[in-house]
Amino acid sequence: MILTDSTVPTDATKDPPEAPMRPRRRSWGRALRRDWQLYSLAVLPLVFFLIFRYLPMIGNVIAFRRYEPGGDLFGEYWVGLRYFRMFLADPTFWQVFTNTVVIGGLTLLFCFPLPVMLALLLNEVRTRWLKGFVQTVSYLPHFLSIVVVAGLILQTVSVDGVINQGLRALGQDPVAFIQDPDWFRTIYVSSEVWQTVGWGTILYLAALTTIDEDLYDQARVDGASRWRQTWHVTLPGIRPTMITLLILNIGTFLAVGFEKVLLLYNPLTYETADVVATYLYRVGIVSGSFSYAAAIGLFESLIGLILVLSANSLSRRVAGTSLW
Amino acid sequence: MVGVTRGYRVFQTVNGFVLAIVVAVTLFPFIHVLARSFSGEQEIRSGQVSIWPKGFNVTTYEKVMSDPIFWVNYRNTVFYTVVATAIALVLTTCYAYVLSKKHLKGRGLLVGIAVFTMFFNGGLIPNYVLVSSLGLRNTLWAIVLPNAISVFNVLVMKAFFESLPVELEEAAAVDGSGTYGTLLRIVLPLSKAVLATMLLFYAVSFWNSWFAGFLYMDRQELFPVTVYLRNLIAGATSGTDNTATSEAALQIAASIQAVTIVLIMLPIMLVYPFIQRYFVSGVMLGAVKG
């Protein structure tokens, strides 16, 4: 207390001459003495980051080492790139890698543009309560547990579910959707749209409110139709938001909703449904080949990191907007 | 010319129609599952139940609610959520408060340590190995500790703390209040709105989580209720059994599944209309800074 007290006036008197010079001259010793209470608040969170975030990153060394379950956290001895060579020669790996790219690509294709469209449509609604109602309803799936979502999907597409009732009404035979590999991607992507489209509009709606009304007035004076106003004023107005979200989406492109796939797939649909994350879960945790699975996981994380970095630098060069 | 053209009126009608479809499609699965939960076995099995219960009954509810394991798991979920949310809230507040102090030496490093973990994480296997070798399996801590801080939430809270007027804290410091005292007596009482948002973010995410429980709990009486539901639906996804008996078992599970889904959703659905705006404002606050 006394320390904080005494530093306040010193700081106030020191501030003006400090501005032209480098403020970096304050030493760590002084900073610690002055702000030890603040630093003490950061200790527990830092311990958390160290143990539960950074230690697992280092733990990836088991991808290059022989690991015995129950043995050393960082493995027993070095084996070099053995596990990497193993999975690169594993046809199942390439199968699940292809599935991941296809599912991720389809998800990006639908889940990125649809919130933009919904936001534009919502933006045209002039009745406030109606707009609020549609928003409230469309955000709802975001708040559900993925297990509940999977349960809802399974009920809806089951043989006695509502989609098959519709098919039967049209005189078609019922389809066992969830056991049919040809339907998995459709089920995955459409339920993903159902879950995310409403929540995805929030940032766009916020960006839409910041567009200057004068721009619309000018466009109208120039005789632009509503459609052209949308094209030339509205879309450029939300472009930075779109690019930011696109970068984030591309970065998480390979991190296909692991939990949802795990809940929805089954051995009958593995050929289209099994993704890298579920494969490494089965190989690593179910079958106990930890090092092999860790090698696959590390490979996947690195691709993810490369995707974010390249999407970011691409958009900086092409569009002049980037995350950092 | 500024007035409403015919084309625009047509557009408004079409727009209203499209949005009505969006609302209907979003709500449909909920209504469907609700209808099934009140329907008879026979009616569900023969595919008669769509949006209105057929063969109305509440016996399935009675059956699920009389299963002691269901209640044990439900209580576990409540307990895990309360403990995890409390810990997460304290840690997040502390770290966000530290990060909001612009003058602090090493602040950039502290921000970097947190933000880097948003883009790169250890992955499933190293995390699993770590939690197992720390001896956290089959304890509450396997669910709580690995997810104790969400960096996104830290950034939301940091943005809020930075928006508070500096003068208040300076005045408190002049009055002889230390950092802890200022945080507890001046800052937190002004931060009720953001604390409520954080509380909801964490509570909903812990309430909904299942994978940690599924991964680290071996005994049924330790499961959160989401894992209870997962085990019910896992029977329905594995289409490998074709024998008549398991077919019957799966079908019974259909109405039980519906009831369990409804009972797990219920608390969230009840508070949803009131909490939704906090979430939206939280996301905006995070997005502006993040």
Overview of the molecule:
The complex is a heterodimer of chains A (324) and B (290). Chain A is built from 17 helices and two strands. Chain A has helices spanning 2-18, 28-59, 82-88, 91-111, 113-123, 128-139, 146-157, 162-169, 184-196, 201-209, 213-221, 226-237, 239-251, 258-264, 270-273, 276-286, 290-318, and strands at 65-66, 77-78. In chain A, α4 (91-111) crosses α9 (184-196) and α11 (213-221) packs antiparallel against α12. Chain A starts with a helix and ends in a 6-residue tail after the last helix. With 290 residues, chain B is mostly helical. Chain B has two domains: 1-57, no CATH class; 64-289, MetI-like (MetI-like fold, Orthogonal Bundle). In chain B, 76% of the residues lie in helices and 0% in strands. Chain B has 14 helices and no strands. In chain B, α4 packs across α13. At the A-B interface, α1, α2, α5, α6 and α7 of A face α1, α4, α5, α6 and α9 of B.
